[in-house]
Amino acid sequence: MNTSLKFKAVVFDMDGVITKTALTHAAAWKKMFDEYLLKREKEHGEPFVEFTHAGDYLPYVDGKPRYKGVQSFLESRGIIIPFGDPADDPGTETICGLGNRKNFAFNEVLEKEGVEVYPSTVALLHELKAAGIKLGVASSSKNCKPVLERVDLLDIFDARVDGVVSAELGLHGKPEPDIFTTACDIFGVKYAEAIVVEDAVSGVQAGKKGKFGLTLGIARENNRNELLENGADFVVEDLEEIGGIAGLNELFLKFKK
Ligand code: BG6
Ligand code: MG
Hints:
This protein has 257 residues and is of the alpha/beta class. It has helices at 21-44, 53-61, 66-76, 95-113, 119-130, 144-150, 163-169, 178-187, 201-209, 224-229, 244-255, and strands at 9-12, 134-138, 159-161, 194-198, 214-218, 234-236. It has 2 domains: 9-20 and 116-255, HAD superfamily/HAD-like (Rossmann fold, 3-Layer(aba) Sandwich); 23-113, DNA polymerase, domain 1. The chain has 11 helices and 6 strands. Strands 3-2-1-4-5-6 form a 6-stranded parallel beta sheet. Helix 3 (66-76) packs across helix 4 (95-113). The chain starts with 8 loop residues before the first strand and ends with a helix. The relative contact order is 0.17. Magnesium ion binds at residues 13, 15-17, 22, 63, 199-200, 203.
């Protein structure tokens, strides 16, 4: 352990922070919701208003667990359908059915295009690991494990609290801080001694609510202000800007609560 470092753990979101899969998710959500909204136009005469990235994905869906994302977006459009059951067929018109339909589309693209990482995040992960810092991944995604496996990063993490683990433990998803706090509890590290790294509005809200030592936002979407307004202490566009582990330590000292 490098004793000049003042933080003990870093908990990373995955989609959009470690892997470039945030865009894969966004495209799959758009495909599913646009098809559904067009169907509603035909069946109920509701004028079709397309699902957009900035107006719908980022505020209502990004970072949230699958069915919570469906629920938040439909609510924003005043659409009420039954919740259903996670075992629902993708053809069922329920919140779970629509979520499962999107998951099918997501996995199709994943299979075809594979997964890419952000090299700056991977470099920082290795630097932190070598310095003895505990590493966590806190992702809402139930696809977290297979995605990390594809890029050979599963084993670098000391704790993984993802969509599958959350469902097993009954954890509240982002914007609640539970999945980040659970990772710290596994390490036995105080929240004030941990750093959260997030690209989603719901994720930095979780970082703020959990009173972590530092909530570092990554604005991949030209959304620096939204991240700052929702709880990020500091925002970069990519982790290459922070100056490695020493730069991260300086940021932690500057913002620690
Ligand atoms: C988050 C993504 O990490 O996981 C969201 O930002 C996604 O876009 C959510 O909807 C849930 O993912 P999954 O793979 O469980 O449907
Ligand atoms: Mg994300």
